[in-house]
Specification:
alpha/beta, 43% helix
């Protein structure tokens, strides 16, 4: 059998490509890539000529079957995405999983990843962190996730698209408080790289004036482990707000029960009593 090489590519500056990556892209029989146009820029920069085949999140199972068949027939294939490591908020996981199930040898060519680069330059505690990738696009689902993360005591890392950044900041300000700090890292390693620190309110006003462009990584410092005493009336009020915004009652009670470490049945009981008043 051949070998599947899972290759990390530069997230911006093409000079970040490793010597091993360049050698691999030259030597394999074909390169499976997210967007052939983007990969061609990398190949042209290093004067590499090789066969490209598209493989992305919308690829059919037939395309995966074809790649697996090529590997089983002894071909070596490099798997790349437009930028960064395949399978990390990028296509590739299903192909890697199926290749491993089929007994195909897999090699990793480590490379840059945007969220680790952003964390490193943020100055925020990196001893323990949780990577959430992209949050749901739908407002109600995004707010559910932000509510869930509101009690997280590790550093939080989130990816966001530029056209959704202001909506994200609005929801984060509402749920976490507009004075909550965060770092927004944008266009890392590129000409217009920007690393901006401030409160959610400050960042919202900044990006209202300066339209954000490019890939965005958000770093949120860990929350204090000191738990504040919260009354059941406040918990019920917060659950009621979620219900008014369209969340299912059971889900709202479950969310708040998890957030404040109380019984869902207690919230439900107080909720019913408050409606009788």
């Amino acid at each position: 059998m051949g070998t599947l090489f899972v290759c990390g590519t530069p997230i911006g500056n093409l000079e970040d490509a490793s010597i091993r990556l360049i050698k691999t892209l030259k030597s394999v029989d074909m390169i499976a890539c997210e967007d052939t146009r983007q990969t061609m820029k990398l190949l042209n920069h290093f004067k590499i000529k090789n066969r490209l085949i598209s493989y992305h999140q919308h690829s059919t199972r037939d395309r995966e079957d074809h790649l697996l068949q090529e590997l089983q027939q002894g071909k070596n294939i490099a798997l790349v995405t437009d930028a960064g490591m395949p399978c990390i908020s990028d296509p590739g996981q299903e192909l890697v999983y199926r290749a491993r199930e089929a007994g195909i040898h897999i090699e990793v060519i480590p490379g840059p990843t945007a969220f680790t680069a952003a964390l490193a330059v943020s100055g925020i505690d990196s001893r323990a962190f949780v990577f959430e990738g992209f949050l749901p696009q739908r407002k109600s689902r995004r707010r559910e996730e932000l509510t869930r993360l509101s009690t997280e005591i590790r550093t939080i890392i989130i990816y966001e698209a530029p056209h959704r950044l202001l909506a994200f900041l609005e929801d984060a300000a509402d749920i976490w408080g507009e004075q909550s700090p965060m770092v927004i890292a944008r266009e890392l390693t590129k000409i217009h790289q920007e690393i901006k620190m401030g409160s959610i309110k400050e960042l919202y006003h900044y990006y209202q004036e300066k339209v954000p462009r490019g890939e965005i990584c958000i770093i949120i410092p860990p929350r204090s482990q000191e738990e504040e005493e919260v009354s059941m009336d406040q918990i019920v009020e917060e659950a009621s707000m979620l219900i008014e915004e369209g969340m299912d009652k059971k889900e709202a009670f479950k969310t708040k029960a998890h957030e404040y470490s109380v019984k869902k049945s207690d919230i439900y009981k107080h909720y019913i009593e408050s409606k009788k008043c």
